[in-house]
Amino acid sequence: ASAVAGVRTVTIFHGGSLRTSYSYLDSITVATGDRLLAGDALGKSGTDHGVGALHVSSRVGARYVDPALVLSCSRENLRLMPVYR
What we know:
3-stranded antiparallel β-sheet; 8 strands
């Protein structure tokens, strides 16, 4: 739980090499080392370019994977954004 490139971010390590990061948080309510259960709040969503936003990314090792697969959620309300380099 910290700022990454000036953006409040929480990264959850699921075990093995899988991790999921939640970015553009307005506030963070967890601390490094906390153990979380499904449904636990980790902070409040913030904004990106003036619009309410929550960026979610999942990685296995260094490879990004579709977070919908990790989070077991419906794709109906999710929209993957392009990666900017």
